[in-house]
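Marked as duplicate of an earlier ticket. Keeping the data here for the record.
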Amino acid sequence: MKTCMKLALLWGSLIWFGTPPQTAIAVDVPVTNGGFETNESIGGLLPSMFGDWDGDASVIVGAENGITPHGGSKMLKFNLTAFNSFGGTSADVITLVDLAPFSADIATGEAVVHAQAFFNRILGTSTTDTEFLVTISAFSGSPSSFPADSGSPLASGNNFIISDGDTSTWEAVDVNLLLPTATTYLALTISAPENISPSGLPELDGHYADDVTLLLSVRSALTPEPTAMIMFAAPMFIMFRRR
């Protein structure tokens, strides 16, 4: 009897615990020049093609102001909070990412995209801005329509950090977004808002971003149904009861 009880408990434990729910496997979504190792002109227009960083005036630089890149030898430096001249209150740099290779995953309605970017800044003074922001927005259609459609995403998510001004450390900002099934591409935006001195001069004293990445995963629901567990477990308990 004790042996049967042990077998029943063992069988039940295997059903409940032996095959743990599988977690979603994240895959890399390529972000062109996410490490800013290739020089490109940034500033003037909203992007209208995949793989092009654009938006408010910024520049790709090497180590400066006591800050070394998070990875590689270069990083992005936010310069102005408007496309070409003074006037905005947030420096926004955007790239468009093609999600066509992941259309089957997105069609499940369970695809989640995870964005991460690293930020650093000089310590500055009491008027030095401290905030950094990451935004991911889902769109349907062609990237050429983004400049007209930028204010109307299918879905959007963001997260921010108030940075510490320690030039020896980079700080990460992470954000997740569940993708609508109609999503065909993403707009990935990294920002340096003027949260301390809006429209003040200098706009940004020394604010940097580096190593922007994306991951996509599909939420999994592979835990056995309770009904199935009962069906598998029942014979063992019946056998135990008969003994």
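See parent ticket for discussion. Confidence is low (pLDDT under 50) at residues 2-22, 221-243.
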